[in-house]
Request: fold
Amino acid sequence: MAEPRPVLEMTGIVKEFSGTRALSDVDFRLFPGEIHALLGENGAGKSTLIKVLTGVHPLDGGTVVLEGRPVRITSPLQAQQAGISTVYQEVNLCQNLSVAENILIGREPVAAGRIRWKELRRRAAQLVTRFGLDLDVSAPLGSHPLAVQQLVAIIRAVGSGNPAAADEGDAAAGTRVLILDEPTSSLDRDEVEELFALMRRLRQDGVAILFVSHFLDQIYEVCDRMTVLRNGALVGEHLVADLDQVNLVKLMIGKDLDELEELSEHHTEPDTSEPFLKAEGLSRAGGIAPFDLEVRAGEVLGLAGLLGSGRTELARLLFGADTSDGGKVYIGGDQAALREPNDAIGRGVAFLSENRRTEGLVPDLTVRENIILALQAARGWTRPVPASQRDELVAKYIAALDIRPADPEAKTGSLSGGNQQKVLLARWLLTQPKLLILDEPTRGIDVGAKAEIQKLVVSLSEEGVAVVYISAELEEVLRLSHTMGVLRDRRLVARMANGPDVTAGRVLEIIASGEHQ
Amino acid sequence: MSVIDGFRTRAEGLRLLQDRRLPVLVTAGLFVLMFGFGAFRYQSYGFLDAQVFMNLFIDNGYLLVAAVGATFVILTGGIDLSVGSVIGFTTMLTAWLVEKQGLPLLLVAPIALGVGAFGGYLMGYVIHHFEIEPFIVTLAGLFFFRGLCLVISKESISITDPTVDRLAQTHVPLPGGSFLSIAAVISLAVLALAFYVLHYTRFGRRVYAIGGNEQSALLMGLPVAGTKIAVYTVSGFCSALSGLLFTLYIQSGDPLHAVGLELDAIAAVVVGGTLLTGGSGYVIGTLFGVLVLGLIKTLIQFEGTLSSWWTKIATGVLLFAFILIQRTMTGRRRT
Ligand SMILES: Nc1ncnc2c1ncn2[C@@H]1O[C@H](COP(=O)(O)OP(=O)(O)O)[C@@H](O)[C@H]1O
Ligand SMILES: [Mg+2]
Reply:
């Protein structure tokens, strides 16, 4: 393939957010007439790269060359004027304005400074129809479902060429680079097809398209080339035809297969009792597709999948942190309506969230206060835990979990990540949960603490506590769980008993292909 | 001609509750109801005289102008607490320049308007570029301008200038024998202009976009900074103009004029159906808000035996009721 000059070339891009590097020395190039996938797990820096390019965030280092000329883009407005149209990951429209305005605001047709409303609606309707959509463009955007809003955002980006050209029905005139950051997350199959058809049409016209999606099938369906990021660094650029899905997933995770195999070890103890928790067809639109799940007392259910595959969303449904919009949950044999975490807590479910800093721990309170919080909440605020009992409990758990420093009066915020995690665990254990959901309990903590937490999970399960264990580290899940669930593209694609035949390789295969024999 | 985009979109009665015009209609309905009540109760006291209605505009013209400015700010999701102080300062500045310095009103008026607009511009600049809550910045503006009043003079300055007197006394005759004051006519012109700007210019639509979602407006490539600053400039300008109208109305400058008037302006905007969270509301609603508040005063005057603080109580009750209505409406919209 003869390579023309890239329309966009980013070199040595660096971006820091208050000291932490979101992007370090990333190169990225985009050719006219190609669809280029930007890939990586959640948090890899895809959206940040896009925001740096389009002037939402200032650049901390590196150069951007657009059509051979170095440019410095400092605002989304400037990016648009330079011919870069963007649909950001968060739907970036105004709910209170009409669909027509959302599509054309900033480019409204005017005569002597006066907006020509009729013309505006006509143009918007034309663009909407071209996309095969039938909707009332003068209705407020907020009255339409999320999928339609996402389509409107795409129509806005695609139609943002010069207004006169849009008038002629040549929607994309003036747009040289189209950026779509996870535009398909709330679209159904037909709408995705419609979008792909449009993308192919634009590619034909020489538009360069940057496409982000965590649906790997979509990447392979529509993209020509891909760039993989991991932890803010460039992993590589490949032609889609040259790299299969399994190898792509390995690049995204950054682990070699052999390395994973070596670590895995299995133990299965068949359990025949009634499940403690049972989910039937539980789902949440935009979060996770309907799934069935069972966890028994003393069982460790491991959930594997890429970041962003729906693991956390699944856990939050089981805990009532999000409300489901379909399906049923049975806890201890009874159907449970989980409308808020309290409903689950009352039934003996505990949830250690992956964001321990923002969603659980109060850094300014002492270790003692943090530990006692959930127990106090369970008793109700009018019945304080007696001081002697409280101190005894706290001392017991500090010792049992080996929290360091072993000082109940230490400020929790000053503890290391691993010890903070133990404080949170202690808090939940104090309530004597029957089901413990752990979302990334070992992320960002040191090796020693990691091993201790894993040991604790094993001993809890021996005591008869049911555990749902979520981790991005496959080897950890394989080692700990009795049963495995694999998630992919916000769908629980496989459930199986852990055993010698369940290897890291096989799980990776499922993550990559979504197929489970 | 469809006046506002999205006005005639859905005919279904079920959707009526979600219609953004509903609060305006409710306020307009309330006004009609209250007026009907007055007409019925005080029939024999001449309540139905057209002039009683016109006096609503004459007595509240300055409030209308201030509230129109506040509408711009509130539509972006901001707030301007400096309105009353800027009005008070304008009365002082005008009285002082006209009376003590002997400058002609024709020269003083643009100066006063410029000072108000510049004050608003500065507050908008600080709010946007230093990312400080509008509440705090305009609170500082409130103290600053009130303090400036006292720098000019601690005493009230009454105005004897013949031009001011003539302008204040001029009656603009209306068919049917009633009349409006110059100030009332100016306030209605400001209202019409504001309506045009908000609904027929790109600037106006940006105001709504920012109120709807500032982050989105930025990502859509709209000039958010300029628009936000402009909105506070508009409010500063309207406050100064309101101050000039107030000077005409009361013919004096006083460091304590219009204390707390920003709260009346905000109340009028809210009662007029504009959401304090921004992005939803109509400046026409603000007119009805001002008229309702004005009518409460008139009714209490006609009643004769009620003391004037009943105005405050009635305003409080109304405000409360309207905030509740807004709350249920936005709650509905989110689901
Ligand atoms: N505005 C921000 N402030 C601080 N950190 C941020 C901000 N935006 C993104 N990050 C961080 O940068 C990293 C990359 O995030 P992002 O680009 O959103 O990843 P992706 O789009 O690949 O999922 C993450 O660790 C995220 O927490
Ligand atoms: Mg992203």
